[in-house]
Amino acid sequence: MMIRPRVLIVAACLFLSCVATIDKDDYMPSVITGPESAAIDVKELEDATENGPYSTLNVDKFYVNIDLAVLKSEIETYPFTWIQAQAALSQWAQRVPVRFMIYVENDTTPRLPFLGSPDKIKFPGVIRLRLMDLSELGLKEGLLGLWDSKRERILLDADLLETDEDLAYSVMLHELGHLFGVPHVVGFYESGSTGFLVLPLEENAREYVMYPRSVANQSQSVLSDLEVMIARHHLIHYWTIPGLNHKSSESCQHFLVDEED
Fold first, then answer.
1. Entry pTM
2. What percent of the chain clears pLDDT 90, i.e. is strictly above it?
């Protein structure tokens, strides 16, 4: 029986795809988590669910797992931005009950016809971190970072951030805040959308991580107790209760260069 060459090629591609397909268990992720003092106390969760299904647990504390995937090629292209992104992950992990499982995707494998890269991570719930030139996506000029909840991904304009490590750290802290449901913070006389946090007159909103713009000569690298409290609230009340959507209420949250500076 004669087999057409095209059939052989398609069959070979399908076979290679099956062999090379990577699932979650094939990866050896790195782990970032915080101290036990940042973990969720079961009593907090019982209060949140009115003594619901968690009231019989025999553990005192636990963390919320978050899977994060990043492309190997982007780490190699933007190493300093990646270092600061990891530092920002560590900072949040010190204050809120999370365990980050970081998976590095090997996207250098040649793509198979019609099938894409065989090394693409294929499992639900993963948050993707992209380090790239955001102008390639046709986004607003001056945009430094973006939490896109519809696609569950954090975008960093590493093309701009690679030469400013402090700014890269601040932007990643900011976008992680949106991942945890923390809205923008503005001053009492500053404009803001519905749901923004408006601070009292005596508070300087520009020092908060969740202030929506990069500000010269202002520290935006230390998480406030207010920002941590809201993030913790979302992790306890929304991320850990089955059936509820953990995504931020805003479809896209972004971080801009301050137009005034």
1. 0.77
2. 40
What is the C-alpha separation between 183 and 211, in angstroms, rounded? 9
Q: How far apart are the first and last CA of the chain?
A: 74
65 backbone dihedrals φ, ψ, rounded to 5°: -80, 140
Average pLDDT over the chain, rounded to an integer: 76
Label residue 156 exposed, middle or buried (CB < 10 Å: 0-12, 13-18, 19+).
Answer: buried
User: Can you read off the two tokens belonging to residue 200?
Assistant: 């009292």
Length of the chain: 261
Q: What is the tally of structural domains in the chain?
A: 1
Is the backbone of residue 243 left (phi > 0), alpha (psi -120 to 50) or beta?
left
CATH value at residue 146: 3.40.390.10
For residue 152, being part of any structural domain is answered with yes
Cα–Cα separations (whole angstroms), residue 206 to 11, 168, 202: 59, 17, 12
Is residue 218 included in any domain, yes or no? yes
Using alpha carbons, select from 31, 97, 111, 13 the residue that is nearest to residue 68. Answer: 31
CB 197 within 8 A of CB 210: yes
In a domain, 5, yes or no: no
Residues 183-214: tens digit of each pLDDT: 999 989 888 888 888 999 989 999 999 998 87
Contacts of 49 (CB under 8 A, 6+ apart): 55, 241
Residue ranges making up the domain that contains 142: 22-257
